[in-house]
Specification:
607 residues; eight-stranded mixed sheet; 3 domains; Glucose Oxidase, domain 1
């Protein structure tokens, strides 16, 4: 039986989404009624579409004898998470042929790395790259040659963008194919220690680069639990990955077998067969809430308080931060993965991984089992199993029923916290979110004078000058999507961590982002309305007393209301971040973007 609060939230989301979901389903069902789309192409169109295929493939596609799989990939060989995808198309094409289908590489999408652009001009493009990826996905599929699609992506904006694009072709059955995490390197806690020493000037650049290189050292996804690995968790919780496939290392026989199996699996669900499973029906209200629940139960990335909202809206489903907050009160924290603990995702997978997490949540009615998935059993039943290679054959066996390391994966009876890792924050400074799963209880309530900045570099400079050596609430303004594309603000993380370690009470308040790597400092982020739209943050002055209580979700500047209202709002003075490094090309995005709580969307409208 589903938990009463989950049941209530689900009913609210379904009722709230009734009109938009109905409109969306009508559109994709109409597209499905025209199947297969190749049959509608003129001879010249079709000839262009399979000109590079073999003679056999041409005959099969011309006669609509076999299903054709589109491959949409984020491959590039500069980024470790995406480099393994280089070999995937060949594996997929061979597997599709063996299973009686055809596969074509339909298109690539851009994939930028926040780890490279942190604190750099390119980070101002990061959030908007999600929508570019969604549009690139649609372009790849727009030739109407396909009966199904495989999506190859991992990292921060890539998977949300692929999902949004896939949902615009919601009549196509779809499977998401991960690359897997790199093997474990330098422990994350040691990496953070070196970063803080560097921030204090106690080690040099050579020592810092050595530590970073030992942490990020090979092909595969970074192993800390940031947005990239939160993506993989959520996609599996929604039933779009093969069961247990999220955290299998790249360049291993098991990884390659799962990639081949994804091609065979998606062929089972095309409209040419009798078990049609289009992604637009797979991703419904319950699937979206499963992803949200997984985020809370694992202390996942705050970025998904934006991305999951946008993904849901692409499917005609309307969720908001109140839904996150209501569920957070009943979903316990079940994992300790860095930055919420010392383990990485390889350790999490070894301790029981996704199968154990899903088993725990299902057993206690804390997720929806009755969704359509791409598993053999249609629902979530198979997702407690784990894949194995036995005599070179891919099989699924029931996973562990108990944690193999209780310091990494807990249970509902013995959670790491009784509530989820994300809280809604509200008060006279607006609405935002806070991730407290990595913040020790003694640091979750901060009351201190404000230090106001409009650029994260200025925060770092003030720290170096010793001006922040005190109890302080750093207010970082004009960091929202309309102002500068809402870059992540991790440049301020090491200095604030140092201040906290020195015994000061420290917090960060901003209309910007911190993401899945949000660490041990209490924060209220994504504040809405953003400063460009008249946030009360623009009336905060240096020295104003601010109280942030992440436990109760309260954020207030302790200034007399009449005094606060009488102040003249500050306006954004610096527009240098609108130019250079390609940022001038995104002016239309900044002007059209919606709020953080509505997904920072620039495109579709199902209303």
């Amino acid at each position: 039986m589903v938990h009463a609060v989950l049941d209530a939230v689900t009913k609210d989301v379904i009722e709230r989404s009734k009109k938009t979901r109905e409109t969306y389903l009508q559109r994709i069902d109409e597209a499905a009624s025209k199947k297969p789309h190749r049959g509608m192409l003129a001879c010249g169109n079709l000839a262009h579409g399979f000109a590079a295929c073999s003679a056999t493939e041409k005959a099969d596609l011309a006669a609509d004898k076999k299903a054709n799989i589109a491959i949409i990939s984020s491959y590039n060989d500069m980024l470790s998470a995406h480099q393994p995808f280089e070999t995937f198309p060949a594996i997929i094409k061979e597997a599709a042929t063996q299973a009686g289908g055809v596969a074509q590489f339909a298109g690539g999408v851009p994939a930028m790395c926040d780890g490279i652009t942190q604190g750099q001009p390119g980070m101002d493009l990061s959030l908007f790259s999600r929508d570019v990826i969604a549009m690139s996905t649609a372009i790849g599929l727009s030739h109407n040659m396909f009966d199904a699609a495989l999506y190859l992506g991992v990292c921060d904006k890539i998977v949300p963008g692929l999902l949004i694009g896939a949902l615009s072709f919601g009549h196509l059955p779809s499977v998401f194919v991960p690359a897997g995490p790199m093997p474990s390197g330098l422990p994350n806690k040691e990496k953070v220690r070196i970063r803080q020493l560097y921030a204090e000037g106690k080690v040099g650049r050579d020592e810092l680069l050595k530590a970073e290189s030992e942490s990020y050292h090979s092909p595969g996804t970074c192993t800390f639990y940031g947005t990239a690995n939160s993506n993989q968790m959520m996609v599996e919780m929604m039933g779009l990955h093969l069961p247990g496939s999220s955290f299998i290392n790249p360049n291993t026989p098991l990884r390659d077998a799962l990639t081949a199996e994804a091609a065979k699996q998606v062929l089972k669900f095309t409209a040419m067969g009798d078990d049609y499973r289009p992604i637009g029906h797979v991703i419904n209200e319950k699937a979206i809430l499963n992803a949200l629940i997984g985020l809370l139960a694992t202390g996942g990335s705050t970025n998904h308080t934006i991305h999951l909202v946008a993904i849901a809206r692409a499917a005609g489903v309307i969720i908001n931060w109140d839904d996150f907050d209501r569920l957070s009160k009943v979903i316990p924290l079940l994992t300790r993965i860095y930055p919420n603990g010392s383990a990485d995702v390889n350790h999490f997978n070894a301790a029981g991984g996704m199968g154990l997490l899903i088993r725990e949540l299902s057993k206690h009615g804390l997720m929806h089992e009755d969704i359509i998935t791409i598993g053999n059993d249609r629902g979530m039943k198979q997702y407690t199993q784990e894949p194995k290679l036995i005599d070179n054959q891919l099989v699924w066996e029931e996973g562990t029923e108990v944690s193999l390391d209780p310091t990494v994966v807990g249970s509902v009876e013995k959670p790491f916290a009784s509530t989820g890792g994300l809280h809604l924050i509200k008060g006279n400074l607006g609405r935002g979110v806070s991730k407290i799963s990595a913040v020790d209880p003694e640091h979750q309530v901060v009351e201190a004078p404000a230090a106001v900045f409009d650029d994260q570099n200025d925060v770092v400079d003030a720290f170096k000058r010793g001006e922040l050596d005190r109890d302080v609430v750093v207010v970082l303004r004009f960091q929202g999507p309309k102002a500068n594309g809402m870059p992540e603000l991790h440049k301020v993380t090491p200095p604030l961590g140092v201040l906290m370690d020195r015994g000061f009470k420290v917090a960060l308040i901003t209309d910007g982002r911190m993401s899945g790597a949000s660490g041990k400092v209490a924060s209220a982020i994504h504040l809405s309305p953003e400063c460009v739209d008249g946030s009360m943050l623009t009336k905060v002055r240096d020295g104003d007393l601010i109280r942030l209580n992440t436990q109760t979700g309260e954020l207030n500047v302790l200034v007399d209301e009449d005094e606060l209202n009488s102040r003249v709002a500050c306006v954004m003075a610096n527009t240098e971040h609108h130019y250079g490094c390609g940022r001038e090309l995104f002016d239309s995005f900044r002007r059209a973007v919606s709020t953080a709580e509505t997904g920072a969307i620039n495109m579709f409208n199902n209303e």
